[in-house]
């Protein structure tokens, strides 16, 4: 992750000298979920609504095409509800991730006041921690997820995903108001144990609103 952040910084410095550069912030929600597969059985639990905050840096290559790396904090996970012998149980697992999406962005509608874009690219995430909640008949127990503990040593903290997005930009004052929609398809198996045939993958749909400032151009 440190190498990726350094590469992002170096790339930004390289492009700044001849490309238009914009930076901003977006905040919203991530409607997260996970898929579980084991021995041919696939299970999709209930979703989880988590926080989504991103700092995008748009590097303009041409009038309509740009590269947009983003430093993002978001929450992933899932929840499960089931009844056993008349007892209602709900389990929720929330993971906090720091991610670096690197997107190719194309504005297929661009006027002085309005822009409509599509974006796609890989994302590299690292799990920072989280919490697990179990509620049995209204009695809730919360456990912090500490990856330094032995019980979590088989968890794969690196999460590689594909991001597909679309959004609208509207000129407002010195910058642009942005509405962004994002679908994240997880590729990494979170089960890191070599002898474990089960796979767990993150997925999510994020909606956010933010503001972009233009810093300079050639």
Topology of helices and strands:
Layout: H1 2-16, E1 21-38, E2 41-43, E3 48-60, E4 65-84, E5 87-110, E6 114-136, E7 139-145, E8 158-172, E9 175-186, E10 199-216
Antiparallel strand pairs: 1-2, 1-3, 1-10, 3-4, 4-5, 5-6, 6-7, 6-8, 8-9, 9-10
Short description, anyone?
With 218 residues, the protein is mostly beta strands. It is built from one helix and ten strands; from the N terminus they run H-E-E-E-E-E-E-E-E-E-E. It has a single domain (2-13, 24-78, 95-130, 151-216), classed as Porin (Beta Barrel), CATH 2.40.160.
Molecular structure report:
With 218 residues, this protein is mostly beta strands. Helix content is 7%, strand content 70%. A hairpin with a 2-residue loop joins strand 6 (114-136) and strand 7 (139-145). The longest helix is centred in the first third of the chain and has 15 residues, at 2-16. It is elongated, with a radius of gyration of 20 Å.
Percent helix, as a range, is under 10%
Approximate strand percentage: over 45%
CATH architectural category: Beta Barrel
* Sheet with most strands: strand arrangement: 1-3-4-5-6-8-9-10
Q: Structural class from helices and strands?
A: mainly beta
Which descriptor suits the 3D outline? elongated
Low-confidence stretches: none
CATH fold topology: Porin
Total number of domains: 1
Mean pLDDT: 87
DSSP E strands, number? 10
Features:
218 residues, mainly beta, Porin, 1 helix, 10 strands
